[in-house]
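Issue 218. Parser rejects a valid record. Input:
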Amino acid sequence: MNEKHVAVLLADGFEEGEAVVFIDIMRRLDIKVDVLSCMETTALNTYFETRITADDTLKNRYDHTYDAVMMPGGPKGTDNLSANPMVVDFLKRHIDQNKFICALCSSGAKVLAAHNLLQGREYTTGDKLAEKFDDGKYVQQKVVVTDNFITGRGLGVSFEFSFTVAKMLLADNQEKVDWQANHIYFDHWPLV
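Output the parser choked on:
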């Protein structure tokens, strides 16, 4: 079984709870995670001023191809991701290669829909954000999976979102995903 590898894209102002829960669940399931700063430095300023340092920068890892790319929300964080052409190009390349694109909270609207990356697919995002963009079809659900796109509404569904991503990445080992959800007493899995 080949090891799965995920990139988590962070920019100043990101929602740290969403990022940390996702990274934690991936690593518990032996999915390799590269936490990548989309800024000049690996030291990042988070939404609630928690000190977090990335593993590397997107600039240094730009040519690497991952099984999935994840982005958390956070108003300023998603503004910074959306304004970064390297982030958009990195996402486009992974979309073209049918890799999983995983957007939590505002990143679904403010990064994916803002750059017409959804191409009309159903997705979910934070309240009212979808109204600002023409791309994509907003669905009011906790987690939405459409093709290789996995989107979640926000911090409160971070675990549902993370286990859904894991389920897609570990399609040949669902028992491991289910066991881990049970192991951490996460009662909302599997999603109905």
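Fixed in the parser; the record now loads. Helices lie at 16-28, 58-61, 75-82, 85-96, 107-112, 158-169, 174-183.
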